[in-house]
Every structure is written in structure tokens, then in C-alpha cells.
User: What shape does this take?
Amino acid sequence: MGAEANQAGHFTQLETTPEIVDALLEAARYDDIDDIKSLASEGVSLDSKDSLGRTALHMAAANGHLDIVEYLISQRVDLNASNEEKNTPLHWACLNGRIEVVKKLILAGASLSTLNCHERTPVDEAISQGKMDVVDAINAAVAQLELAGVQVS
Assistant: This one.
């Protein structure tokens, strides 16, 4: 799996140029999981960031692409990666009302307490946009974790 091994047993890796990162983020934004898997198999880090600090998880979370979010989580990407404004994928999912993505990120361990450059948590962003259904989803996910004995940050 991943990049192919050469005869010395080392993995060859596709150089992660800005164009490659853009292709990865575009695939996540437009729900093209096959392109994401292809880039990953060529050795592109799924945690790669563009010039604004955005990751594939930011793009998938903002656009509600749950299958890509689940794939990226399964590949152990950084759930709390922050862009240049210190927004995490959870901030973006909350801002855009992506309820299922919000729940998935929280259940996978995304932080609820990370502050962006405006000193707002993901919950604050949901409230600022009047997304009370997102707040309800956050509370439900937190309750589910607490019932399972998981500490939520």
C-alpha cells in the first residue's frame, strides 16, 4: 500500500509541489475520493497544506463530504490542523452546518476548544451563524463520548 517500494526497500514519493497539493484539495472539495486515494498511493501526504494552510480535511469538512472525511480519519490525518486563520476542519464544518461531519470529527477526537484568530471555538462559530442544529449535534456527540468514558477537550 502507499508508494511503491524500490529495490533497496525505500518508498518513492511524489514530490509534493503546490500543484499536487492543489489537486489534493480540489479532489476533497469536489468529492473525488478516487483522486485522493490515487494521490495518497503515490506518496502524497494527506496532511499537505496549501499556501493558506488548508488541508484536504478542511475542504471535505466544509463541503460536507462525509465519505472523504471518514477516509481521511481512517488514514490518521491531523484532525486539528489549522489554517492561517487558525480554523480547524471542525470550525469549517460548524460554520457550514455540516452536521454529520461535525459529529464524525468530534467522535474521532477533534478538539472543541481550539480557538481561531477571532478567539472563537467551533461551537462559537456555529452559534455566530445561527446553526443551532449544529450545536445540538455537538452536544449529542459530546454526550455519546462522555457516556463511553472518553474525556472531551
About this structure: Residues 1-11 have pLDDT under 50 and may be disordered. The domain at 18-147 is CATH 1.25.40.20 (Serine Threonine Protein Phosphatase 5, Tetratricopeptide repeat). Residues 71 and 94 are 19 Å apart (CA to CA). Residues 132-147 form the longest helix (16 residues).
